[in-house]
From TrEMBL:
Belongs to the archaeal RpoM/eukaryotic RPA12/RPB9/RPC11 RNA polymerase family. One of its GO terms (cellular component) is nucleolus. InterPro entries: Rpa12/Rpb9/Rpc10/TFS, Zn_ribbon_RPB9_C, Znf_TFIIS. It comes from Citrus x changshan-huyou. Its main location: nucleus. Pfam families: Zn_ribbon_TFIIS (PF01096). This is TFIIS-type domain-containing protein. Residues 38-79 form the TFIIS-type domain.
Length: 80
């Protein structure tokens, strides 16, 4: 058993308003925890790999599939 120096528990709650746009940061393409696919092609640079994830989109019910190009010089984002 190890004794902690500080027993505080921190909780970070993020609240978004309905009108707020979902922001996708360009560096998500480097995130090793996100799944990758080679089944799509970026329309901007024609790179053949993208990361993808699902999130709610503004004003819509349900989930939207977001893609981010893995080309470090591009970072184009799109959704399906």
């Amino acid at each position: 058993m190890e004794v902690a120096d500080n027993n505080c528990v921190y909780r970070n709650e993020v609240h978004h308003s309905v009108g707020e746009r979902t922001q996708v940061l360009q560096d998500v393409a480097a995130d090793p925890t996100l799944p990758r696919t080679k089944a799509v092609r970026c329309v901007k640079c024609q790179h053949g790999e993208a990361v993808f994830f699902q999130a709610t989109s503004r004003g819509e019910e349900g989930m939207t599939l977001f893609f981010v190009c893995c080309n470090p010089n591009c970072g184009h984002r799109w959704r399906e």
